[in-house]
Structure formats: C-alpha cells, structure tokens
Design a protein that fits this description.
Layout: E1 2-6, H1 9-19, E2 24-27, H2 31-40, E3 43-48, H3 59-67, E4 73-77, H4 81-92, E5 98-100, H5 107-118, H6 122-129, H7 131-134, H8 139-150, H9 158-165, H10 169-178, H11 184-199, H12 207-213, H13 219-230, H14 234-240, H15 243-254, H16 256-264
Parallel strand pairs: 1-2, 1-3, 3-4, 4-5
Helix pairs in contact: 1-5, 8-9, 11-13, 11-15
Length: 265
C-alpha cells in the first residue's frame, strides 16, 4: 500500500522507517505535488502537515477532503499555538488521527496509526467486498489475489498472478472453477472496474486519472470493461451507481454460485 507523506524531511524519514515492509512511502514537499501524486499514483493513505509550506493552514487539507473524500488523511505536525486552531477546525471536519512531532511519533505508534487508517482505504473496502469470494481459495493464492486487488496496476494478467502464487495457469483456473468463481480473467477485470468505480466517486479524479492509476494502457479499455461488467460507461457509472449497487451488478452477472446462495437464503 502506498502512503503519501506531505511532511518535512525529518518527518518523512520517520514515517518511512515506521512503515517498514508493510507500506511504501512517497514524499511530496508542495501541495501541487500532493495533488499530482494522488491523481497519478496508487496513493491509499495520506499523511499531511498543516505546516508544509511554513505557515499553519487548513485550506489545502480541506481541499483534499473535498476532492478526494475516500482518501484517509492523517495529520502529522508540531503542536504550536498556530497549529492548535487549524487542528481544531480539521477535527470538526472529520479528521481524527493526529500525530505530534517529538511527542508521540515513535515508530510503533506511527505504524499503529497507519494500520488503523488502512482499513478505510479504497482497496481495503474492495477487499472486504470480495472476502466471501476469496475465502475458499488456498491461502497462498488468496494472499496473492489480495495483494493484486490492493495494487491492480502492478499485476494485470492471469499468468502474472499465477506466477506470483507459484502455480501454473491451469491450476489457477481450476481452483476458481472449483469454488464457483468466474474465470480468473473475468474476476480480475471486474475487480478493477469496481475499484475504478470507487475512485470515480471522488470529484478530484477524472476518468483518465483513474485509468492511469489502475494501469489501463488506454482509457477506452476502462470504458469497454465498464460496459462489459456494469453495462454503463465510466461517466454513467460514476453518476448513477453506489458501490454496493455496482457490486450487486457484477455478482448478478458473473458470480452465479453466489447469486444462487443469495436467492436461496
């Protein structure tokens, strides 16, 4: 999972050390760089300092909240008279996690805060939606698929996923058939469309941004997949479907075993 750190150099090094192997951390030293990174890279969490430009302000952080409401934000700053009012204002807008430099930014605490906010990320919510589908699979295959759903731009083909799981493609496909899932190709493509749909709920993303973030070579491929799995263009699915409705459409058309279970219950 990629964490964006819009903080000072010292804070960035502390975050990177705390993140260790669980999170990758990328640094942004200006608010323009923050916006660029969020739109072009698979950023799932953002750690931001109201003092990034030297003067305490909530304006740019509030802008992030408006543009990217699904992106969990963690404040990491110094406690000063100037930041106190800013922290109060941001707290009233729903930002709850604050870490103070030289006070409670021990690596263990930073790691704990990152892990807490990870549960609110778009990829984790997608994983939660698909937990029922992945649970019957062998653990080594399930772990690989979970990583793929967290970083869909990195691994995109059935062969690549099978290689990561250290099984051949036929074995991979047989496991899916055995537990009543659609073909791995359909599963991966549908999951990417649902991930794209979640991102498109944020007004700060264009369709082109989302296609780039999810590793589509061309935006028209995302449009094709949106029509295939949701029956809508990317623009239409953004405006007309809630995430739960999008999942229901995919399940109805491509997960016959799950649909049958739902009907019986």
């Amino acid at each position: 999972m990629l964490v964006l750190a819009a903080v000072s150099g010292i804070q960035f090094h502390k975050l990177r050390r705390a993140a260790a192997a669980r999170f990758a951390v990328v640094h942004a030293s200006t608010w323009d760089a923050v916006l660029s990174a969020i739109r072009s890279r698979p950023v799932e969490l953002a750690v931001v300092d109201p003092l990034l430009t030297g003067t305490a302000s909530d304006r740019e952080i509030e802008r992030l909240r408006v543009l990217f409401p699904s992106l969990p934000l963690i404040l990491y700053t110094s406690l000063t008279p100037q930041t106190a009012a800013v922290l109060l204002a941001l707290g009233q807008r729903g930002i709850r996690h604050v870490v103070f430099s030289r006070y409670d930014d021990h690596p263990l605490h930073l790691r704990h805060v990152l892990a807490q906010e990870e549960s609110r990320s778009a990829s984790q919510q997608l994983l939660d939606q698909f937990a029922w589908a992945l649970s019957p699979l062998p653990s080594e295959l399930r772990w690989v698929l979970e990583e793929v759903l967290r970083s869909p731009a990195e691994v995109q083909t059935v062969q690549q996923v099978a290689a990561r799981a250290r099984v051949d493609r036929r074995t991979f496909e047989r496991w899916f058939m055995r537990v009543g899932l659609p073909s791995p190709r359909h599963f991966l493509a549908a999951a990417r469309v649902l991930y794209a749909h979640r991102l498109l709920q944020d007004p700060g993303f264009t369709i082109e941004d989302v296609a780039m973030r999810l590793g589509y070579a061309q935006t028209k491929t995302l449009q094709l997949h949106a029509r295939t799995y949701l029956g809508l263009t990317a623009g239409e699915m953004r405006l007309t479907l809630a995430p739960e409705e999008a999942l229901e459409r995919v399940v109805h058309d491509f997960f016959p075993t799950r649909q049958a279970q739902v009907s019986v219950s």
